[in-house]
Structure prediction request, 146 residues.
Amino acid sequence: MEHFEPTVASAGSITDITQRLALWAIRSPKGLARVEFSSEFARQQVVRDLNTRLAEQGITVHEIALPTYQTPDALVSSLLDELSRLPSGVASVVGFATAFSNQVPLIDALRVLNFNREAGHLSSEPDLVGDLRLHANRHPRHARPE
Prediction:
C-alpha cells in the first residue's frame, strides 16, 4: 500500500476535507461521520477527489442516495439493507434533508438514527461517510469551494 502524503490546504476547503476523509478512511477500520457541504458542487468535488485518492490505496467509494420521506425505522432498515449489499469500502450517504417523513419530529427521527449509529448497526463495513466521513471524535466541517 502506498504512503498517503497530504498537502497543506485552507481549513474547510474541498482539498482540506478530501485530505481529512482520505486519511481517516485509510487509518480507520470502520465508522460513521458527518460532513456538511456548502453546496452540491462542493460535495460532488469532494466525492470525486476522495474516490481518486482512495482508489490509489485500493479503497472503493460507494454512493448511497437515501429514499425520501421515510419513518426513522424504515430509513435505518433501508440503509442497513443497502450497506449489506456493498463490498468493503467507504460509502457516501446523501439525502438526509428529505429522508425523514414529517409524521415524526426531526429530533425524534435523528435520535433513532443516532441510536442505531451508537449501537454499531450503522458502522460496519463499508465505512460510512454520512454526507461524508471524518473521525467520529472530530467536529463536523463545512466543505466550501476553494
Q: What stands out?
A: The CA atoms of residues 52 and 109 lie 34 Å apart.
